[in-house]
Automatic annotation (TrEMBL), chain A:
Residues 285-300 have a biased composition (Low complexity). This is NADH-quinone oxidoreductase subunit J. NCBIfam families: PRK06638.1-5. The keyword Transmembrane applies. It comes from Prauserella isguenensis. NDH-1 shuttles electrons from NADH, via FMN and iron-sulfur (Fe-S) centers, to quinones in the respiratory chain. Couples the redox reaction to proton translocation (for every two electrons transferred, four hydrogen ions are translocated across the cytoplasmic membrane), and thus conserves the redox energy in a proton gradient.
From TrEMBL, chain B:
Residues 394-457 are annotated as: Disordered. The keyword Transmembrane applies. Its main location: membrane. Residues 416-433, 447-457 have a biased composition (Basic and acidic residues). It holds the Pfam family NADHdh. This is NADH-quinone oxidoreductase subunit H. It is an enzyme of class 7 (translocase). The keyword Signal does not apply.
Length: 300, 457
């Protein structure tokens, strides 16, 4: 099959023309692909970059389909856009939406290497492109319905017969990479240093290796509010400090401290003062209550 | 092998030629009908699902709008676009708007490659009931499914709040893992029918029998993964309302929410139609030949829709019956059960096909070789030692019910240190007594006298 391929190419070179539909599709899809690639580089947000790359890959897939290689085109869409870019998105979403690019150089000499390799690849691409524009005969349009055409049969024959060895080498490389990733990420939960089981954790908590044996108190959910920002109250009406989350903006610590002081001053007369801290439970008069009032006014 | 392939390839060419002959108005007509199938089925399915699930749970379901509540979805469809749009402050607005569109469009395109029936005449024009025919139209449906998930993932991410993000993350992981199982189950069908065109697969089933019993493992794997792929119960983890409020569409409202709904139900229709095409013989009516009158003209479209509705009913039945999976169990099912099973089954199919294509191997020989192989595998399995459960030391002996109980041969010690101490104290007290009143001293150390001395005291 390899011997007769140049013959076919030479025959088709003479009368190879591009139909109007194909030309229109090319001039629509080509700029979209290039624009997607450029936007991928210049987008500030990592997820936006990934989406621009998806657009480039989709238009490439459609270009393959136009050139009578529907199998390759759909495989491009399923494998690259459907699986690989989805994995990228997965990782980006795990890392968080604030994952914009940093200007810090982590690896020594990374930029220099990147510049050299980038220029090298650009040179190779430019060389191949100029050669393609001058002296490569256009390939004949194949009939994708026949096994030898752009369908799965022809592609399989090329990969699994003519280029079997490079294919096996590539798959060995991929398997090595996958096994390496698994080895790096694997933690044996049965070994001594491995992941602790639930029982180990319970024992460790009661042994005092952690801050407290129980989980922190949940937020207060009352008849008047059901927000996670509402602090939980202790039996004497004071706020449980552990129920506050520093992550939630609507419960600034200062405001809650003031509120706590206010409650303390209110409770000064009753016998519940025994539950408060002995150090700051006495003689704090009007000042904290005033602070709390201003804090609530500010909030309003 | 090549004559077989050529034979399979000539049939779709005829269909493809018929399709290529279509005038523009016919193509437009078919495109409109194919685009409308999704929304119409959505409207019918929502009411149907609510009624059927209601019936399964002993309650009437929707019964206010129209006769028997049948117009409920129409009322909802009118209501939803007029509701207020609430857009979160933290949302990434462009992607937030784009996500429902990305979810819907592939769901509407997917039906284009499904062969609903054979050759018919529409307004005097001979054609087939299919919008497009590609040599790889099986992949078109798969590609549509893989693009549609972007809508869910991006919708979850762009909402800018934690629960939708978790829903989107789950969806991404879910689709990646279940698409592999789905693809592997489809490869079995492609290997068997020697065609990647949907119409070619239907034609191969008309000749050699339907694949749902010929390739039963493939069919089961496809059914499970199709439920996972469409985010339906019991695999509806991306929107698990008891854990994630509403999952990926928590922050969506109004028309955009309706579009997610449309995408979900259209996807159900697509995977059901795809299952009908791949495993249930497409539009064929069983027991009669392909040339029977019942399999000519418009009849196949009816059979096709009937088979599709059976699978859709299965979806609803599952929802009414099974509780939602836990996320790690779901992933375990995908990666540790479905994918390995599909791979082993695929290996088996490929081996049998290769043996059949090779000259001079009869079916009996294949069966004998297969039987020997199975026996060898079973014997090897017997050689594997059973996994020993490591005995945990320092555990209280238990028996029955898991409650700690004393062992049956428990020996109660005659004396204990405490009893000894008590004894010693008593003796010393007696000794003191004896010293104080020497006339009362009896035989010292005799235990029989102890009771009397107590009585004296």
């Amino acid at each position: 099959m390899r011997t007769e391929a140049p013959l076919v190419l030479a025959q088709a070179g003479a009368d190879a023309t591009v139909s109007t539909g194909e030309a229109v599709a090319f001039w629509v899809l080509g700029p979209i692909a290039v624009a997607g690639a450029l936007c991928m580089i210049f987008a500030r947000n990592a997820v936006h970059s990934a989406l621009w790359l998806v657009m480039t890959m989709l238009s490439l897939g459609m270009l393959y389909m136009l050139q009578q290689a529907p199998f390759l085109g759909f495989t491009q869409i399923i494998v690259y856009t459907g699986a690989i870019m989805m994995l990228f998105l997965f990782v980006l979403m795990m890392v968080g939406r604030e994952s914009s690019d940093s200007v810090l150089e982590v690896l020594r000499g990374q930029r220099l290497m990147a510049a050299v390799l980038g220029i090298g690849i650009a040179g190779v691409l430019a060389g191949a492109l100029t050669r393609a524009l001058t002296d490569v005969p256009p390939a004949p349009a194949m009939n994708p319905w026949t096994p030898e055409g752009g369908g799965a049969g022809g592609l399989a024959r090329v990969i699994f017969q003519d280029y079997l060895f490079p294919f096996e080498l590539t798959s060995a490389l991929l398997i090595t990479a996958a096994v390496g990733a698994m080895v790096l990420a694997f933690t044996d939960r049965h070994s001594k240093q491995g992941k602790r089981s639930q029982r180990d954790l319970v024992e460790a908590r009661f042994r005092g290796e952690y801050e407290r044996p129980s989980p922190k108190p949940g937020p207060g959910v009352y008849a008047t509010s059901n927000s996670v920002a509402t602090p939980a109250l202790l039996p004497d009406g004071s706020i449980a400090p552990e129920s506050l989350s520093s992550l939630i903006e609507s419960t600034p610590t200062a405001q809650l401290q003031a509120h706590r002081k206010q409650l303390e001053s209110r409770a000064a007369g009753s016998d519940t003062h025994a539950l408060l801290d002995p150090e700051d439970g006495t003689g704090d008069g009007d000042a904290p209550a005033g602070a709390a009032a201003t804090a609530t006014e500010d909030k309003a | 092998m090549s004559p077989l392939l050529a034979q399979a390839a000539t049939e779709p060419i005829n269909r493809a030629e018929l399709l290529a002959d279509d005038p523009l108005w016919l193509i437009l007509l078919k495109a409109v009908v194919v685009l409308l199938i999704g929304p119409i089925f959505t409207v019918v399915l929502i009411v149907g699902e609510r009624k059927i699930v209601g019936r399964m749970q002993n309650r009437p379901g929707p019964n206010r709008v129209g006769p028997f509540g049948m117009l409920q979805s129409l009322a909802d469809a009118v209501k939803l676009p007029f509701k207020e749009q609430v857009i979160p402050d933290t949302a990434d607005r462009k992607i937030y708007f784009l996500a429902p569109v990305i979810a819907v469009v592939p769901a509407l395109i997917g039906l284009a490659a499904i062969p609903f029936g054979g050759e018919v005449t529409i307004f005097g024009e001979r054609t087939v009931l299919q919008l497009i025919e590609l040599p790889v139209s099986v992949l078109l449906v798969l590609a549509g499914a893989s693009i549609g998930v972007y809508g869910i993932v991006l919708g979850g991410w762009a909402s800018g709040s934690p629960y939708p993000l978790l829903g989107g993350l789950r969806s991404a992981a879910q689709v990646i893992s279940y698409e592999i199982a789905m693809g592997l189950s489809i490869i079995g069908v492609v290997l068997y029918s020697q065609s990647m065109a949907t119409s070619g697969i239907v034609a191969a089933q008309a000749d050699g029998g339907w694949y749902f019993y010929l390739l039963l493992p493939s069919f089961v794997i496809y059914l499970v993964s199709m439920v996972g792929e469409t985010n339906r119960a019991p695999f509806d983890l991306p929107e698990a309302e008891s854990e994630l409020v509403g999952g990926f569409h928590t922050e969506y409202s109004s028309m955009k929410f309706a579009m997610f709904f449309l995408a979900e139900y259209s996807n159900m229709v697509i995977v059901s139609a795809f299952a009908t095409t791949l495993f249930l013989g497409g539009g064929m009516f069983p027991f009669f030949g392909a040339d029977a009158a019942i399999n000519q003209g418009w009849w196949p479209a009816l059979w096709f829709l009937a088979k599709m509705c059976v699978i859709l009913f299965g979806f609803i039945w599952l929802r009414g019956t099974l509780p939602r999976f836990r996320y790690d169990q779901f992933m375990k099912l995908g990666w540790k059960v479905l994918v390995p099973a599909a791979l082993v089954w695929l290996l088996l199919i490929a081996t049998v096909r290769a043996l059949r294509n090779a000259e001079g191997v009869s079916t009996g020989q294949i069966l004998i070789i297969g039987g020997v192989a199975i026996v060898v595998v079973v014997l090897l399995m017997l050689l594997i030692p059973e996994k020993e459960i490591p005995e945990d030391e320092g555990v209280v002996t238990t028996s029955g019910g898991g409650h700690p109980v004393p062992p049956l041969d428990l020996k109660v010690p005659e004396t204990t240190p405490r009893r000894k101490a008590v004894e010693a104290r008593r003796r010393s007290e007696e000794k003191q007594q004896a010293e104080l009143s020497p006339q009362a001293a009896g035989a010292p150390g005799e235990s029989s006298k102890e009771g009397e001395s107590h009585g004296d005291l």
